[in-house]
Amino acid sequence: MTTRPFLLSSSIQYMKGVGPRRAERFERLDVRTGRDLLYHLPHRYEDATTVDPIASLQPGDAATVIGRVVSKGVLRTRTRLRVFHAVLRDDTGLIECAWPGRPWLDRTIKKGDLLLVSGPVRFYHGRQLQPREHTVLDGSGEGIEGGRVFPVYPATEGLTHRQVRAIIDANLESLLSELEGRERLPAAWLAELHLPPLEEALLSLHRPSALAEVEPARRRLAFEELFFLQLLHARARWQLKTQSPGIALDAPPSLTDPFIASLPFELTDAQKRAWSEIQADMSTPAPMNRLLQGDVGSGKTVVAAAALLKAAEAGYQGALMAPTELLAEQHFRSLSELLAPVEVQPVLLTGSITGRQRAVVLDALSNGTRRIAVGTHALIQDAVRFESLGLAVIDEQHRFGVEQRRLLRQAGTAPDALVMTATPIPRSLALALYGDLDISVIDEMPPGRRPVVTGVRGPDSREAAFEFLREQMAEGRQGYVVYPLIEESEVLEARAATAMHEQLAERYAEFEVGLVHGRLSAAEKDDVMRRFLAGEVHLLVATTVIEVGIDVPNATVMLIEDAERFGLAQLHQLRGRVGRGAEQSYCVAFHSGKEPSERLSAFAGTTDGFALAEEDLRLRGPGDLFGREQHGIPMLRFADLERDRALLEDARGRARSIVEHDPELEQMDHRPLRRELVEHYGDREELYRVG
Ligand code: ADP
Ligand code: MG
Q: In this prediction, what percent of the chain has a pLDDT beyond 90?
């Protein structure tokens, strides 16, 4: 019989040395239960290997030492300043430390305490260290063993890291003993991956006997975290594939073959690969749940068009959903053109299609006379009934909520879903975010595309760049000047953009200069964008509201102000607004400092969106990749997508293979996984159910 873990699930308040008052303080550290306490890990460690031997200190050094207080006291200088003194000893020697003006330390630092101090060493009647920081590692009498590593814990007001450590120390054994028999990862995996068992890992993290123990222990927790995330993804994927009746969209290629033959170009190898992956998925009855990733202009739309036709030739309907009306209209125009040779005419449904026109569209969709629909979220409203929706293509999915995806799924009997994104996502992040999706990547540009010439310029070159923009406009081209969002205030942002607009309108008096920013209504924004699209507006002054999607082939210049304030992914998106036509295009990113940042240099160095996304992940971490409105990036406590990439791939492989063979985790050796999943990820499983 296993006893229920009592302490692990008990409130922190009942842990030794805690009580109600400290419990409140622990709450600020997100520690509420015994389990939380056990997982409240040191954020750094100090030990004899990370500090300087006292004998080695020289005046002029900045030093960190650990030593035991052998004597102490308060002295008064001739200027009557009271100075606390303590002499520290380690295995190599003695040093005097002095804290001018801090006599009260005499009450908190005791003879025999083990201190960690850091600060400059100077010459004053011999060597003297003036600590900038000090930490009492151990009270007196606890014995100094050489090489002992001291964990330093995240602390909070009213709860010092020493108190945290003492409390963890007092409870560690009993908490760990409750983990006995609760190892969830199969022993064979731990052996293969060289990872310690759970209990041992936690013990090593709290009380390492050497620093070298810490990293394998962290990797163990990281692997477990990544594995359960992937297990959730794999189960969501499995549920979707098996529990909803899907459609096999498998018919002779009466439309798709002629369509591909009608294109004025040959598909790139990457497009062919993506297309054959999509075909294979669509042909089987299990619902497709696939992400199609490709840089701006890599030719995703052509592949999506083929997929929509595949649904149509099998006797079903296909729908393409875009995040804004403008983008929906743009997709509608390009699909109408692309599909003309095979005589398929798509219909458009957006919020501004109303009245009789709307009724006609709704009819055509419900009686099945139209096979391909393009639209906004208007496509998933209650009134819309498809006769037989077989495929949903969703453009720029990270702008769509899970809810919308779910609704679109309900429009038919689990239609195949193809999610398109032009925001390159590093594979590791894609796996963490969209592990439940299969992924196709178009990582190759159509031949003959001229890369956008990119420059990063300082303040001295602004004039030249703005004059260059004038020349381009004089030749009939169009351009953009983009300002970063002023995050604190839309009002400020609008004001700044408005001021710039006025200035530029004056400067380019012979041209039409338009303005879009976040304070404009959708209708106002739309109006300006339409006039830009029609070529009536030559220069668009904008905040990042233009970031996604708009396609104006005649635009050849993109000037980006305060470029340091953009993420790499954003900069790359902005650059993607130009270079869409036959003319050579240019992008200039202005920086305000003397030297461009590492990020901007990387930006100028390549036009490969995937390379930039990897770089962005490295420089800024996953949370920043899409800006702050991006939701759904899982909080990883122990894993690091950059460092633990190999672990992530491994975790994904294991999760998928388990779910394939034993989806309900019923096998004897999978039961501990199941128990952990139910106990600690139950709430998240609901979240991941929807693809
Ligand atoms: P994306 O949707 O990925 O931004 P599009 O599908 O809109 O890219 O393609 C961008 C442009 O490239 C379009 O004008 C399209 O006709 C063209 N294109 C697509 N695939 C190819 C190809 N294999 N060879 C040449 N041009 C292509
Ligand atoms: Mg496109």
A: 52
User: What angle, 0 to 180 degrees and rounded to 10, lies between the N-to-C axes of helices 609-620 and 427-434?
Assistant: 80
Q: CA-to-CA distance for 675 and 108, rounded, in angstroms?
A: 47
Atom of ligand 1 nearest to the CA of 302: 6
Calpha distance 430→633 (Å, rounded): 10
Side-chain half-sphere exposure of 55, counting CA atoms within 13 A: 4
Distance 547 CA to ligand 2 centre (A): 14
Q: Which residues surround ligand 2, an ion (CB under 5 A)?
A: 301
Using the mean position of ligand 1's atoms as its centre, give its distance from the Cα of residue 126 in Å. Answer: 75
Q: Is the CB of 297 under 6 A from ligand 1?
A: yes
Tell me which amino acid residue 148 is.
R
- Which residue's CA lies nearest to atom 27 of ligand 1? 446
Give alpha helix (H) positions in 508-644. Answer: 522-533, 568-575, 598-605, 609-620
* Confidence label for 404 from pLDDT (cuts 50, 70 and 90): low
Pocket flag, ligand 1, residue 265 (CB < 6 Å): yes
Query: Is residue 66 helix, strand or coil?
Result: strand
Q: Which ligand is nearest to the CA of 423?
A: 1
CB of 452 sitting under 6 A from ligand 1: no
Closest ligand to the CA of 293: 1
More confident residue, 1 or 641: 641
How many angstroms does the Cα of residue 449 sit away from the middle of ligand 1?
Answer: 10
d(CA 672, CA 632): 27
Which of 275, 298, 301 for mutating ligand 1's site (highest number of atoms within 8 Å of CB)? 301
Radius of gyration of the chain from Cα atoms?
31
Q: Which amino acid, one-letter code, is at 80?
A: R
pTM listed for this prediction: 0.71
- pLDDT tens, 311-362? 999 999 999 999 888 889 989 999 999 999 999 999 999 998 999 999 999 9
Alpha carbon separation from 590 to 464, 560, 626 (Å, rounded): 12, 6, 21
Task: Using the mean position of ligand 2's atoms as its centre, give its distance from the Cα of residue 563 in Å.
Answer: 25
Cβ 210 vs Cβ 151: under 8 Å: no
SS3 state of residue 26: helix
**For the residues of 278-345, what is the DSSP string, one character each?**
HHHHHHSSSPPEEEEEE-TTSSHHHHHHHHHHHHHHTT-EEEEE-SSHHHHHHHHHHHHHHHGGGT--
* Strand residue runs (E) in 449-572: 453-457, 478-483, 513-516, 539-543, 555-560
266-293 pLDDT tens trace: 999 999 999 999 999 999 988 888 999 9
Q: Find out whether the beta carbon of 293 lies less than 6 Å from any atom of ligand 1.
A: no
